[in-house]
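Dear support,

I submitted the protein below through the web form. The confirmation email said the job was done, but the results page showed an empty box. After a refresh the structure appeared. I'm attaching both so you can tell me whether what I see now is the final result or a partial one.
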Amino acid sequence: MATRQILQETLSGTGFILETSANAEESLRLANDLLPSILLLENSDGINAFETCRRLRANRGMDGIAIVMLIDREETDIRALGLSAGVDDFLDKPLDGLQILARLRSLSRFNRDRYLLADLNRFSWMVEHAHEGYLMLDRSGTIHYANEMAVHLLNMPEEFFGLPFKHVVERHYVPQPAEAWQAWQEDPAPCFLVQPESPTARAVWVVLEALDPPQGVEYMRLVRLRDVTERMSIYQDMRRFHTVVTHKLRTPMSMLMMSMSVLKTQTESMDPEEIKTLLASAIKGTNRLAEEIRSILTYIDAPLALNLGKPLSLKEIPEMIKTTCLTLNLSDIIFSMPADLQAVTLSITPEAMEMILHELFDNSRKFHPSHQPCIEISVASLEDEFIQLRISDNGQNLSVEQLQWAWLPYFQGEKDFTGEIPGLGLGFPMVASLVWKAGGTINLRNRINETGVIVDIRLPLESTMRKMERSAAPYGS
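What the results page shows now:
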């Protein structure tokens, strides 16, 4: 009773809460219900402290509890028995208030650190086996830690400590948008890491995000890498299928339906030549419809066929522009290209260029007040074996937010997957993804002192991409 009273008086107002029991069974029940951080045992009448300690240690749910035994100073032999039973520490009787508080606070901190260490070990296991890549960088951008997935995504050697993060990224990826990557060390905005499409493999997409520590905390930037290749492929497949169905099938279907409708209602009043002409038109529409359907089925069955398409010759662009304008009912188009560029071939496929032109023209049409924009297209050669395709219109200017996010479908798509930004069409991010896959860059800006926007697309020559593929090599090669 004296021990209990001393403990109550000593611990009153200290933050420790004292619960007591009269026998071994009650002690075990209280420990199981309360899961205390520290348990005090006294080998007295009605309580066998050693047996109680053994039973506590046998319960895995309570193996984290610190057990302290209260013993007389002279009972030196009891210490060995207590340690063998699982006791962590001892307090000598008669009890001293200051000693009790100092020992309990020390054990409490030790227990807390033990739990933290256990949680850290579990967290480390989770990070190492995560499906996302995690890295830690110092102020200079040097890698201090990388989990297994980060090593895999960045194709790093086992001895990665001390490697410069920017160099590692640029060795295997093209960060996009380029402007965000240039300022990333100072302002780590989210961006894509893209491995451009090749004749034998599809493009790889990795989202790069970073979290800086709070002010006043030792600096170590946390970086997350998410492989979103599958999601981007699905996004592009959905958009491409929508484009094919709504535009490529519309013309042959209209041609077929119109011819059959006339034949159905006016056959008796038509001469044989007129009937032959309509039948020829219907057959032409049927053949074209069948061909488009076959191409859709081929695409669904073998999605990698897109990667194997022939490179685009610049001499094909004028006809693509003409066809796209007819489809969208656009007439005010100005096109210019030096004659010596007609034989040049780009890394991008004709199909991808058709989609780029269609999406950009369609956006120009949608966001022009009268839906009849004046669109200017020019092609120019750049000094670094790239070609610049510039498309400008006289429609609306874009806000700062729209210009900033227009090409990033994945980040805006976190909530609804569509990537749609108010006031913008889905075509903007689709165009960006096609350009980046081909190893190019893209820039969107407002026209100066005029309404409308300018889109600058920079695409590598086919020969440039071949050189880039040959020069790419893993670390240590």
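Response: this is the final, complete result; the empty box was a page-load delay. The domain at 2-127 is CATH 3.40.50.2300 (Rossmann fold).
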